[in-house]
Sequence to fold (252 residues):
Amino acid sequence: MNTFNRIVMVLGTLICLAAVSLVVLLPLDAVKVARVSLDEFERMLYDGGSYTMFLAAAGGTLFLLLVALVLELRRPRRRFVRIKTQGRGNAQLDVESITQSLEYRVDELAGVRQVRTRIKSRGKSVDVALDLDTSPSVNIPVLTEQVVNLAQDIVEEQLGLAIHGQVRVNIKHEPYPRGTMPVSTPQERDASARAALVEPVLPRAERVGSNARTSESKPVVVPVGGDAPAKDVSTSQDGQGDGDGDEPKSRW
Fold:
């Protein structure tokens, strides 16, 4: 486009120089030429065929001028961005490489189904925008923070570029299918949290009493030859046993 602009500017400048020189050096001849040209143009307008050709030529010229104006006003998209270097070198990175790096890393995050990256080069910095499609169960605030931190780490730390402004994240969150979304009230969440707590430890006195009530009775044998005759003494479940002073029951 720069070459085309130069060609047009050179030709336009030469034509203007010739016309101004002709008017300055030969003003009367220039007026005669202009009058003859206008008369011929007026005669051509009354001729049907000539007028049609005039319209076609004028339409084509206007179209070419509009195309040239659009191409001149439209700024071409930059394909490279300058890398920050500490030395005297000048390094540039392709925008497509930035796009591929971001899409590959962001797509690995849990809950991301599809990612589309839009990178715009500003010469010394880039605009970063990401469009995400997420699953229904993903936590949006947590995922957004992860994506922003990951994009800054890749672009600024690994690639050595500068981000212009902030990283923009546009999320399309897929809803739960009808009838499958988990519903939980605050009371239900509190009840589930209390059920997950560890069972409280009983006091020592209560543990001893519980163990005494649940223990089985075991016989106690007094060795023969002692002061008291051999006797089976058992402890009942309520913790009270037969005393030593009880009279033995008669066999009859």
In short: Residues 48-73 form the longest helix (26 residues). The longest strand covers residues 112-121. The two ends are 133 Å apart (CA to CA).
